[in-house]
Amino acid sequence: MPKIQYITQDHPELSHSMQAKLAFEKGIEAVQIRMKNSSEKEILTEARMAMQYADEMDGTLIINDSIAIAKEIGAHALHLGLNDTPIDEARKILGAEIIIGGTANTLEDIVIQKSRGADYVGLGPFRHTSTKKNLSPILGLEGYQNILSKMNEKGLEIPIVAVGGILLEEIELLQNAGLYGLAISGALLKTLNNQTHE
């Protein structure tokens, strides 16, 4: 699983597939298509195009929430929330090859997702983010360090990806905290969007 992923978001000028293309072109190895306000048909259209770009540029495409779409386009990975279909059930449908990650906010959540067979856990939010409604409690750097320390004590091993309001200049700080990787949305989109207008 790549260590940095870009999560797409609704944008007035850039479609989700175009965001994926730009991210892959800029060397981001993984892109998660996250379309919370769209129909299944719209998501499928964008995901298909994004998958094409991923294949062309040797990127990893992650689908948020939809097992059916991940299966239909042959996505490399799927990301599921705690209240979505459990990962072990999704695995029965999609097979052993696909990477499946799960969302967590606490150490208990991580234990649950690992028991369900998650390949990685998206742990957050790091800070308040405008891209997600009904946000879980903010973790901050101290929250991550605390959870990682408890994981070490328990001998609990699973790649942890930080998510939620992360700025580009904080990447190194978070990597040094012992996290496996990071998922970035808004901060990276600004950079991508600026480059399309240069």
UniProtKB/TrEMBL annotation:
Q: Which residues bind 4-amino-2-methyl-5-(diphosphooxymethyl)pyrimidine?
A: 32-36, 64, 103, 132
Q: Which UniProt keywords apply?
A: Magnesium, Metal-binding, Thiamine biosynthesis, Transferase
- The residues that the entry says bind Mg(2+) are 65, 84
Q: Which reaction does it catalyse?
A: 2-(2-carboxy-4-methylthiazol-5-yl)ethyl phosphate + 4-amino-2-methyl-5-(diphosphooxymethyl)pyrimidine + 2 H(+) = thiamine phosphate + CO2 + diphosphate; 2-[(2R,5Z)-2-carboxy-4-methylthiazol-5(2H)-ylidene]ethyl phosphate + 4-amino-2-methyl-5-(diphosphooxymethyl)pyrimidine + 2 H(+) = thiamine phosphate + CO2 + diphosphate; 4-methyl-5-(2-phosphooxyethyl)-thiazole + 4-amino-2-methyl-5-(diphosphooxymethyl)pyrimidine + H(+) = thiamine phosphate + diphosphate
Instruction: Give the EC number(s) under which this enzyme is classified.
Output: 2.5.1.3
Q: In which pathway does it act?
A: Cofactor biosynthesis; thiamine diphosphate biosynthesis; thiamine phosphate from 4-amino-2-methyl-5-diphosphomethylpyrimidine and 4-methyl-5-(2-phosphoethyl)-thiazole: step 1/1
Q: Which InterPro entries match?
A: Aldolase_TIM, ThiamineP_synth_sf, ThiamineP_synth_TenI, TMP_synthase
Residues binding 2-[(2R,5Z)-2-carboxy-4-methylthiazol-5(2H)-ylidene]ethyl phosphate: 129-131, 165
**If you read the UniProt record, what top EC class would you report for this enzyme, in one word?**
transferase
Q: Which cofactor does it need?
A: Mg(2+)
CC cofactor note: Binds 1 Mg(2+) ion per subunit.
User: What is known about what this protein does?
Assistant: Condenses 4-methyl-5-(beta-hydroxyethyl)thiazole monophosphate (THZ-P) and 2-methyl-4-amino-5-hydroxymethyl pyrimidine pyrophosphate (HMP-PP) to form thiamine monophosphate (TMP).
Family of the protein in this entry: Belongs to the thiamine-phosphate synthase family.
Indicate what this protein is called per its UniProt record: Thiamine-phosphate synthase
Write down the species.
Answer: Marinifilum caeruleilacunae
